Amino acid sequence: MSSEKIAIEEIISAEKNPSLQSIGIKILNKERINENEGIMLFEKAGLPYVGALANFVRERLHGNKTYFNRNFHIEPTNVCVFSCAFCAYSKLYAHREEGWELSTEQMMDIIRSYDGKPVTEVHIVGGVHPKLNLAFFIDLMKQIKAHRPDLHIKGYTAVELDYMFRKAKVTNEEGMKMLHEAGLDSLPGGGAEIFHPDIRQQICADKVDATGWLAIHETAHKLGMHSNATMLYGHIEKPVHLIDHMERLRNLQDKTGGFNTFIPLKFRNKDNDMSHVPETTLVEDMKLYAIARLYMDNFPHLKAYWPMLGRQSAQLSLSFGVNDLDGTIDDSTKIYSMAGSEEQHPSLSTAQLVTLIKQAKREPVERDTLYKEIKNYASMDEAEMEADPLYN
Q1: Which phi and psi angles does 175 have, rounded to 5°?
Q2: Which of 19, 38, 141, 316 fits 182 for a cystine, CB–CB 3.0-4.6 Å?
Q3: Three-state DSSP class for residue 325
Q4: Cα separations in angstroms, 267 against 36, 59, 80, 203
Q5: Long-range contact set of residues 381-384: C-beta below 8 Å, sequence gap at least 24
Q6: For residue range 286-325, what is the model confidence (pLDDT) as tens digits?
Q7: What is the DSSP letter of 93?
Q8: 120 and 176 share a domain?
Q9: Are residues 105 and 143 in the same domain?
């Protein structure tokens, strides 16, 4: 019996609540916990308990490895037809003079600026602009692939896609096929927010609902595309809503197996219609990540998006179930910085990101979008990293 298993058995045995002890035994034995047990972890369990269990699961799945990729973001526009209470980023179409709209050529200039650099992914997400339609983005995909065929394009939230498809009068399957054939490789997880209608009605009533979001991702999976899934936490939701959200994702993953990673996103309260709602504490953040790792048993990866949490908090999350820190980002992403996230201009060199992971006593592994390992940096020191121009 491994020392790790012995240690976690001792932690479970020391738990005084029999119900929580029972949950720990199920996790130890790789048995699925149910919705009531998930809620109980939020309401009754302490952070040390769920943290230890989550770290055990994380290491059972991935050992000490922590993944990242070399990516960059493009935001086509912050003009949006929707109005979400938590959003400090988008500008309603009626007030678009306050926003920006990038042309295809401007976006291709960004793509070309990475020529000769070892990035593997471009992430394209923005507001829902009524004039940037399906045909516009199909053309963009084709131009990107013509210029750099090896670059993985991860683009468009289900919210953007739902609007594109409805406006073009095509089905989800027809629209996804068109984008996929043009060069779209996978979907990000944005726009999920909270699926439960009681909460969704209050924070983002006018955009695609849970059924629509899940249907688009299911369609992508059926076409052989992978996707990610997110959850916006730490605002007006309760544990029952968080577990409901994770349960819906878990059910779809059972059906398709198409999700790569689950990404909890921390609500930030600056300059939006929910500024009166206090943000979660660091303890609450780590507990959320830990429970997510325990509940999302069929999701291979759990990601902490470091620009949202901040570098130190993301580093800490590696002890609470997280095994992925996203990537170098390398852009001026405004979606979270405008809402008060820790990182105002999120960008890390590969060397900085590797050092961040090593400081947490983890093993840095560069991956591609689909988690194929590219390079293990465990034995490479910071001086070697800094001396190599490819890895800065």
Answers
A1: -65, -45
A2: 141
A3: strand
A4: 24, 28, 19, 12
A5: 382/351, 382/354, 382/355
A6: 999 999 999 999 999 999 988 888 899 999 999 999 999 9
A7: G
A8: yes
A9: yes
**CA geometry: angle 143, 146, 152, nearest 5 deg:** 85
Which has the higher per-residue pLDDT, 176 or 77?
176
Domain C-terminal end among 62, 83, 110: 62
CB burial string 213-236: b at 16+ within 10 A, e below: bbbbbbbbbeeebbbbbbbbbbbe
CA distance 35 to 177: 35
Q: Where in the sequence is the domain holding 331, given as residue range(s)?
A: 66-391
Amino acid in position 338: M
Closest by Cα among 175, 112, 177 to 146: 112
Helix 158-168 crosses helix 172-182 at what angle (to 10 degrees)?
110
End residue of a domain, out of 62, 95, 112: 62
Q: Give the total number of structural domains in the chain.
A: 2
Question: Residues 42, 291: contact at Cβ < 8 Å?
Answer: yes
Antiparallel, parallel or unpaired: β 91-92 and 363-367: unpaired
Residues 211 and 160 occupy one common structural domain = yes
Provide the CATH number for the domain around residue 236: 3.20.20.70
pLDDT at 219 over 90: yes
Residues 271 and 166 in one domain: yes
374 vs 392: which has the higher pLDDT: 374
Mean pLDDT across the chain: 89
pLDDT in tens, 231-268: 999 999 999 999 999 999 999 999 999 999 999 999 88
> Hey, which of 123-127, 149-153, 333-337 has the most confident mean pLDDT?
149-153
Euclidean distance between CA atoms 258 and 214, whole angstroms: 12
Alpha helices in 79-133 (DSSP H): 104-112
Residues 173 and 229 in one domain: yes
Q: What is the percentage of the chain residues whose pLDDT exceeds 90?
A: 71
